[in-house]
């Protein structure tokens, strides 16, 4: 049975709960890239993010009947990924420093001007985002990259809406300072 692309995500989840593999393929096709990128930005390890995306959609297959529809399916998926990424990061905290992680640590000898000369604006922006705390980075990621509302972010992260607003305010303030230090003009007032 082939499923039309206009079928709503919630309807797909209901079909998945009944064991519909085509619905699972369609839901995966719609959301795996965004959910993977969100997880990758959290864990900063491609292999781990690939493992986590598999776990997320395995959970969807196993727990589709538990989806209550109180949020968008994309919000539910991002929430599952966030939980799995945080769990993986907690497990990995005691792991030894690998070459990729060591290479990603900024050289303290470079000042912001030298860093900007070495990298393009996109890389500098990613470096500034990476300098934010995990909480602030997650809020920025969900609001600006995934275009989630404050209410949706609160549901994904599991904090009150006012806390989301506060974290967003301070994250933007810190990001603006980091961008200014890197010699990049920010794109908002």
CATH superfamily of the largest domain: RNA polymerase sigma factor, region 2, helix turn helix motif
Overall number of domains: 2
Give a count of the beta strands, DSSP E runs of length 2 or more. Answer: 0
Report strand %: under 5%
Describe the 3D structure.
It is a single chain. With 189 residues, the chain is mainly α. Helices cover 71% and strands 0% of the residues. The protein has ten helices and no strands. The protein has helices at 9-17, 21-43, 46-63, 73-92, 99-104, 112-118, 121-131, 134-145, 150-157, 161-181.
Brief summary:
The chain has 189 residues and is mostly helical.
Which key features would you list for this structure?
189 residues, 10 helices, mainly alpha, 71% helix, 0% strand, Rna Polymerase Sigma Factor, Chain: A, Arc Repressor Mutant, subunit A
